[in-house]
């Protein structure tokens, strides 16, 4: 998605959660410093080399979702690429699936992401104002191919194609890189895993924006955006708000 189209939505998110652009810039500067030179070269082109023309399975972390049952896909979808959102990399590896890409802000089980990277996954590390310590701790641990992203305008070293949480960023990236179809597995916008009560409302607010952001993506692209459900069914993605409006 063009940054000019995404930026107004991110401004709403930043105002809601009190994100300051000054801190985003500081985190981006740290990430640029930590990334190897090769990781700062043409990040979008390198991601597109893995995604273009393929069915993109974006794996989220919905409670109890597990890893996607890729072996159940029809033969016509065998040309696929798996994008794991943060901790979903651990679920994928546990099921014997090495993600092709991992999109992460380093707040999950990062050791599994390091493992996936060593086994061939391109890891897209996202810098934001709250994860500078994690950037400093973990970026040097990745031995494989890396790319970087941040919340501000894209430039040659760090990409930004839209999306707020890791799951949406993966879906936006798949679209921007020319996926033929995007399957959303393990997305739940109304439940969070076990967490402290003080965190629950904030996480639910983030999920509401995640759903809203994916609706923005759906209405902005010709790429089919499909919800792949645990019962094996697949249906076009529509946010709950959009579905309600369509019945009025």
Description:
With 248 residues, the protein is α/β, with parallel strands linked by helices. It has one domain: sialyltransferase cstii, chain A (Alpha-Beta Complex), CATH 3.90.1480. Helix content is 41%, strand content 15%. The protein contains 9 helices and 9 strands. Strands 6-5-4-3-2-1-7-8-9 form a 9-stranded mixed sheet, with helices on both faces. Helix 6 links the parallel strand 4 and strand 5. The longest helix is centred in the last third of the chain and has 22 residues. The C terminus is likely disordered.
The CATH class is Alpha Beta
**Alpha-beta classification:** alpha/beta
Largest sheet: 9 strands, mixed
- Uncertain regions spanning at least 5 consecutive residues: 242-248
Topology of this protein?
Layout: H1 3-17, H2 21-34, H3 43-51, E1 55-59, E2 80-85, H4 88-94, E3 101-104, H5 110-118, E4 122-126, H6 132-138, E5 146-149, E6 158-159, H7 166-176, E7 181-185, H8 197-218, E8 225-228, E9 234-236, H9 240-246
Parallel strand pairs: 1-2, 1-7, 2-3, 3-4, 4-5, 5-6, 7-8
Antiparallel strand pairs: 8-9
Helix pairs in contact: 7-8
Salient structural properties:
alpha/beta, 9 strands, single chain, about 250 residues, disordered C terminus, 9-stranded mixed β-sheet, sialyltransferase cstii, chain A
Concise structural overview:
With 248 residues, the protein is an alpha/beta fold.
């Amino acid at each position: 998605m063009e940054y000019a189209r995404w930026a107004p939505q991110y401004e709403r998110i930043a105002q809601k959660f009190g994100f300051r652009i000054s801190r985003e810039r500081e985190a981006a500067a740290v990430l640029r410093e930590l990334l190897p030179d090769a990781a700062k070269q043409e990040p979008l082109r390198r991601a597109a080399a893995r995604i273009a023309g393929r069915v993109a399975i974006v794996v989220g972390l919905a409670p109890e979702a597990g890893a996607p049952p890729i072996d159940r896909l029809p033969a016509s979808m065998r040309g696929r690429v798996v994008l794991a959102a943060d901790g979903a990399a651990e679920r994928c590896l546990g099921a014997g699936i090495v993600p092709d890409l991992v999109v992460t802000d380093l707040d999950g089980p990062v050791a599994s992401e390091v493992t996936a990277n060593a086994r061939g996954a391109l890891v897209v590390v996202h810098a934001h104002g709250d994860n500078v310590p994690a950037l400093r701790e973990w970026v040097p641990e990745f031995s494989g191919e890396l790319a970087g992203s941040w919340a501000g305008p894209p430039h040659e070293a760090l990409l930004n194609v839209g999306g707020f949480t890791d799951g949406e960023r993966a879906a936006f990236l798949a679209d921007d890189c020319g996926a033929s179809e995007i399957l959303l597995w393990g997305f739940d916008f109304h439940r969070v895993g076990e967490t402290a009560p003080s965190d629950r409302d904030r996480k639910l607010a983030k999920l509401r924006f995640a759903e809203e952001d994916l609706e923005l993506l759906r209405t902005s692209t010709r790429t089919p955006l499909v919800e792949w459900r645990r019962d094996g069914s697949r249906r076009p993605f529509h946010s709950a708000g959009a579905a309600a409006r369509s019945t009025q």
